[in-house]
Design a protein that fits this description.
Oligomer: single chain
CATH class of the largest domain: Alpha Beta
Largest sheet: 7 strands, mixed
Strand order of the largest sheet: 9-10-8-11-14-13-12
Low-confidence stretches: none
Structural class: alpha/beta
Shape: globular
Mean pLDDT: 89
Helix content: 25-40%
CATH architecture of the largest domain: 2-Layer Sandwich
CATH superfamily of the largest domain: Dihydrodipicolinate Reductase, domain 2
Number of domains: 2
Strand content: 25-35%
Number of strands: 14
């Protein structure tokens, strides 16, 4: 398998860091890495045991790369992607916005298992997202605000409209009017089949790792033992249940750095159940982007990877 040259737009953001980590873990053969920064390129990233300096994305000649992954959701990144497509129409490009959002993937994994057991169902999910899902500036804002509050200061809010440290914010308060919950609902319908899901989403003062409380109503009665057995047999789910406080999965102690979804605290019977889920949205989305790279390598005939 020959190496190829890959550009990662937003390589210095948390999602970009996760992409590089998974590329390395899966031993994807990368020749030259172009680590592109949407902001000021005064940072570097680690990949393959080396430090790679970040280059400014503005003015970068995308013709130098054979493929492009986009780890930034910013308007600047969207504009640069348009320019890259115009400059290199045959170059494979995959953006984070092309993916099913991680919260829908996490919930969909559980619901797909349940629909296989009991047919159509409906559900409500409350999702708490970490600030890293909003990028590196959001991570730094939470860190700065947390330190400031301990020092009896009142740090300004920039990424989020209000203070995020020791607080909860509705998702759309920080992201504007676009319907993220609607995207989650549509993606989950594709992923979970006969499932109707409503999402509520909030930003939480977490650096990494997300949590979701999932309430499910099935048309048919579900057997609790069969449900647990089905969850255990999925490779991308980890069932954690025991009568010990430490056996409850949490975003920081279990989900962070993993592509799996951890399920715990299953409650209910018959056709109504409640689930506690934790997952790392960056790892799930980075894994999907790296899978696209692996697919380009496996099927290079229609791409510039030849």
């Amino acid at each position: 398998m020959s190496a190829f040259d890959l550009a990662v737009l937003g390589a210095d953001d948390p999602l970009g860091t996760a992409i590089l980590q998974i590329l390395e873990e899966r031993e994807v053969p990368i020749g030259r890495l172009y680590a592109l920064s949407v902001g000021e390129a005064d940072s570097s990233v680690t990949f393959g045991g080396q430090e790679w300096p970040c280059e400014p994305a503005e003015g970068f000649d995308f013709g130098r790369a054979q493929a492009l992954l986009v780890a930034s959701r910013t308007p600047v990144a969207a504009r640069l992607v348009e320019a890259a497509r115009a400059r290199c129409p045959a170059m494979p490009i995959r953006t984070v916005d092309d993916l099913d959002p991680a919260p829908a993937v996490a919930v969909g994994r559980v619901l797909r298992t349940l629909t296989a057991l009991g047919g159509p169902l409906s559900a409500d999910a409350f999702v708490a997202l970490p600030v890293s899902y909003a990028g590196q500036d959001a991570v730094e804002e939470l860190a700065t605000q947390s330190r400031g509050l301990f020092n009896l200061e009142s740090p300004d809010a920039e990424v989020f409209p209000l203070r995020i440290a020791f607080n909860l914010l509705p998702h759309d308060a920080a992201t504007g009017p676009h319907d993220f919950a609607g995207r989650l609902r549509a993606a989950c319908a594709r992923l979970a089949g006969d499932a109707s899901v409503e999402f509520s989403v909030a930003w939480a003062p977490l650096f990494f790792g997300a949590a979701a409380q999932l309430h499910v109503r099935a048309d048919a009665e579900l057997d609790a033992d069969a449900l647990r057995a089905a969850l255990r047999h999925r490779d991308d789910l980890v069932l954690m249940e025991a009568d010990l406080p430490a056996a409850t999965p949490t975003p920081a102690t279990d989900a962070q750095g993993s592509e799996a979804v951890f399920v715990g605290r299953i409650r209910g019977d018959a056709g109504r159940f409640r689930f506690w889920l934790v997952f790392d949205p960056l790892q799930i989305e980075a894994g999907a982007l790296v899978s696209a790279v692996e697919n380009w390598i496996d099927k290079p005939a229609s791409s510039m990877l030849t």
